[in-house]
C-alpha cells in the first residue's frame, strides 16, 4: 500500500470498523492510565493511538505469536484475546473489502489476475452489498489479536 489520500481514507474506514473491538481488547487487557505499553507491529498506529489515549501517555503473523514473544521477553502468564469485527451488507466491513481491492488493483493487474475494467471498482461495493443481502451474509474481516502480561 502507498501513501495516497484514498488509502488514508481506507485506513480510516478500517479504524472505525475495528475501534470498538480495539477498545474492548484494551479494556480486557486492563490497560489504564499510567501503564507502559509496547505496541509490536503497529502498522499506521491506530491501535497505538487508542492505547496511548487509554494509558495517558506489521508482521501479519504477529497476532499468533504475541504470547510467545511475551514469554521470550521474560514475561510470565501472557493472556491472549481475539475480536472479529463483522457486518452486514451495508457495513463498513463491505466498504473496507471493496476499498482494499482498489488499493490492490495495481498488483492484481501486474499479476494478470484482473483488469480495471473487469474489476469495475466504482460499482464493486454496491455489487458486494447486493450479493451479501441476497444470501443474508455476515461479513467477517481479519481478526484483531491482543496479548498482554503484567509485570510483578
Distance between the termini: 40 Å
In what order do the strands lie side by side in the largest sheet? 1-4
Helix content: 40-55%
Measured by DSSP, the beta-strand proportion falls in 5-15%
Total helical elements: 6
Overall morphology:
elongated
How would you characterize the overall build of this protein?
The chain has helices spanning 5-28, 46-55, 62-72, 92-110, 116-119, 121-134; strands at residues 79-83, 86-87, 139-140, 144-148. It is mainly alpha-helical. The mean pLDDT is 79.
What is this structure's SSE topology?
Elements: H1 5-28, H2 46-55, H3 62-72, E1 79-83, E2 86-87, H4 92-110, H5 116-119, H6 121-134, E3 139-140, E4 144-148
Antiparallel strand pairs: 1-4, 2-3
Helix pairs in contact: 1-2, 1-4, 4-6
Features:
152 residues, mainly alpha, two-stranded antiparallel sheet, two-stranded antiparallel ribbon, 6 helices, elongated
Short characterization:
Helix content is about 55%, strand content about 10%.
